[in-house]
Design brief:
about 290 residues; alpha/beta; Rossmann fold; Pantoate--beta-alanine Ligase, Chain: A,domain 2; 3-stranded antiparallel beta sheet; 11 helices; about 35% helix; globular
Length: about 290
């Protein structure tokens, strides 16, 4: 496995890999969710390229950029063990050199959910992802279901700017007790960690109501909120949205729904989501539902 830190070195190394390249973009602090993306890329392509970059422009004021975990040697060992061919580990000065003035704004699908809670976040995401696509030239890039809004935003950008690549969506990896894997889980105290299992129970409760025939969005939200009642954190939102457009859904429908929720434990925000019906929470179902063609 080759590790490069500069753009000229990345371009030279990328030129040796050919066309069948899957790319996994990460901020490091890797867990089983990231490695599931790597395994999918490894299965689909001749070569796998990964990036490790804690992107400062997607952190909003007061968020955890400075304390975000950066176990770089451990991350590189994991990527090596999973068959990654090339890793790009730039610094902020490499990605945003002096005089950098260009940013990408995706309208519409960035306005609600995390876009409303974290102003400017998706501009930072879209800009750095576009740069990485330009630099790595993937045939396919891989994202996790847990960041469902990010998937929709990236797919919108890919279509609008005619990037010649596919965006694959891999189902959320979970701990044995159901908590979605996240690099930020390490911030939780033992009591918070136990309470956070309620996020998964909330998704399951809404899914169970859906399976019994419930279609009223208010009732589905209430099922999720009831499961979060004793979660020990502050519920920021529970939202039902069209998974393609992310428009809020306030009337009963048989169309697929994206149920998203965020709970805050101190300074740590935990995000989780699921599609309704739950049978869509597979790679094929996610790909079709979350803005897929």
């Amino acid at each position: 496995m080759r590790v490069v830190k500069t753009i000229p070195d990345l371009r030279a190394a990328r030129a040796t890999l050919g066309q069948s390249v899957g790319v996994v973009l990460t901020m490091g602090a890797l867990h089983a969710g990231h490695l599931a993306l790597v395994r999918a890329a490894r299965a689909d392509h001749d070569h796998v390229l990964a990036t490790i970059f804690v992107n400062p422009t997607q952190f909003t004021p007061g968020e955890d950029f400075a304390r975000y975990p950066r176990p770089i040697e451990r991350d590189l060992d994991l990527l090596r063990d999973h068959g990654v061919d090339l890793v790009f580990t730039p610094t902020p000065d490499v990605m945003y050199p002096p005089g950098f003035q260009t940013h990408i704004t995706v309208d519409g699908v960035t306005q609600g959910l995390e876009g409303a809670a974290r102003p400017g976040h998706f501009m930072g995401v879209a800009t750095v992802v576009a740069k990485f696509f330009n630099l790595t030239q993937p045939a396919t890039t891989y994202f996790g279901q847990k960041d469902a809004q990010q998937v929709v935003v990236v797919r919108r950008m890919v279509r609008d700017l005619d990037f010649p690549l596919a965006v694959a969506v891999i189902p959320t990896e979970r701990e044995p007790d159901g908590l979605a894997m996240s690099s930020r889980n390490v911030y939780l105290t033992p009591d918070q960690r136990q309470g956070a299992t309620a996020l998964r129970r909330a998704l399951l409760a809404a899914g169970a109501a859906y399976e019994t025939g419930e279609r009223d969005p208010a009732a589905l939200r209430e099922a999720a909120l009831a499961a979060l009642h004793d979660c020990g954190g502050e519920v920021e939102y529970v939202s039902l949205n069209d998974p393609r457009t992310l428009a809020p859904v306030d009337r009963p429908t048989e169309a697929p729904l994206l149920l998203s929720l965020v709970v805050r434990y101190g300074r740590t925000r935990l995000l989780d989501n699921g599609l309704l019906p739950a049978s869509l929470n597979t790679r094929a179902g996610l790909s079709a539902a979350l803005g897929g063609e």
